[in-house]
Amino acid sequence: MKLLTKNTDYAVRALVKIAQRAGEPVPASLIAKEERIPYAYLRRLLNDLRDRKVLRSTEGKGGGFVLGRKPEEIFLTDVMEVFQGEVNLTECMFRQKICHNRSTCVLRHKIREIEKKVLGDLEGISIGTLLNETKGQKND
Amino acid sequence: MKLLTKNTDYAVRALVKIAQRAGEPVPASLIAKEERIPYAYLRRLLNDLRDRKVLRSTEGKGGGFVLGRKPEEIFLTDVMEVFQGEVNLTECMFRQKICHNRSTCVLRHKIREIEKKVLGDLEGISIGTLLNETKGQKND
DNA sequence: CAAACTGATACTATATTGGTGTCAGTAAAA
DNA sequence: TTTTACTGACACCAATATAGTATCAGTTTG
């Protein structure tokens, strides 16, 4: 059970870094170095985020990435959606057909409930949250 | 975000089926047919469950599988552990080292909280639960 | 012995995840 | 105007996880 994959993790770290430089374009090279993320891989992640309007980019020397919207408006679920597909619920394996085993329907119903809760929790986390709660806090 | 993988799902369905036949050995062939699970694949799943003492088996004609303990004592987390590895928490990527980015530690802390909640919820579901709540309930 | 089972294990296929490499284009600045 | 530091766009590869197959030996019942 892994809620976040590595690319989501990388992406969040990149976003936080970019957010910290409020407005100033941050090049992928810098993020890669400071966050120890493979450069070429990070490039792709950032491009994906840009495609989804989470980031904006400026080309050429001195270019880089800036946030596409306010940190408080970039949710963890947004990032997860980009890299882990729909942050969404286990669909009933027998959707169309008649569910021929009630027990497993009960299971699926329960799982769905849990997933909904998780989703709610995740939606409470934004890049903004991470930035704010960082101030004056102890390390892991 | 997929809480359950297909093999866990298969396994749970098999367990429920076995539970329903209270005590009588249930052959893999029957489960495979009724639950539409690939026979050879199911065989392996059942063997894994037996290795983990979730099931017990009797060989030979008329043999099959019975529960290794009471339905109420077989938890979803048990099954998940067998097939999806430790139902456990995202570990800090910088465990030993000093966490050099507080924001991501905040993230990890939050994720950990969510995972703990999920774990708690999952622990509330057993084969027994699924059996009981099945009675007289509507389909999906 | 035949039939109906499990035990064990090796193999294959497919999808997902993580990572690399290359080349073209753009903007700043020497 | 050339060099430098960037992004854009892809094609490709490797590792791992997930799902599924195949085979053969051994056990129990009848």
Structure description:
Chain A has 140 residues and is mostly helical. Chain A has a domain at 6-86 and 126-132: Winged helix-like DNA-binding domain superfamily/Winged helix DNA-binding domain (Arc Repressor Mutant, subunit A, Orthogonal Bundle), CATH 1.10.10.10. The first copy, chain A, contains six helices and two strands, in the order αααββααα. Chain A has helices at residues 6-20, 28-35, 39-51, 76-84, 102-123, 127-132, and strands at 55-58, 64-67. Chain A has a two-stranded antiparallel ribbon with strand order 1-2. Chain A starts with 5 loop residues before the first helix and ends in an 8-residue tail after the last helix. In chain A, 36% of the residues are buried. Chains A and B meet through helix 1, helix 4, helix 5 and helix 6 of A and helix 1, helix 4, helix 5 and helix 6 of B. The structure holds a DNA duplex (30 and 30 nucleotides).
Number of helices of chain A: 6
Spans of chain A of at least 5 consecutive residues whose pLDDT stays below 50 are 92-98
Side by side, the strands of the main sheet of chain A go 1-2
Give the ordered list of helices and strands of chain A.
HHHEEHHH
Q: How far is the N terminus from the C terminus of chain A? A: 21 Å
Kindly name the structural category of chain A. mainly alpha
Instruction: Assign the CATH superfamily of the domain at 6-86 and 126-132 in chain A.
Output: Winged helix-like DNA-binding domain superfamily/Winged helix DNA-binding domain
Strand content of chain A: 5-15%
Biggest chain-to-chain interface with counts: A-B, 47 and 48 residues
CATH architectural arrangement of the domain at 6-86 and 126-132 in chain A: Orthogonal Bundle
Q: From the alpha-carbon coordinates, what is the Rg of chain A to the nearest angstrom?
A: 18 Å
Molecular shape of chain A: elongated
Topology-level CATH name of the domain at 6-86 and 126-132 in chain A: Arc Repressor Mutant, subunit A
Based on DSSP secondary structure assignment, what is the total number of beta strands of chain A?
2
Oligomer state equals homodimer
Biggest sheet features of chain A: 2 strands, antiparallel
Mean model confidence by pLDDT of chain A: 86
Task: Report the top-level CATH class of the domain at 6-86 and 126-132 in chain A.
Answer: Mainly Alpha
Q: State the share of residues found in helices of chain A, binned by percent.
A: 40-55%
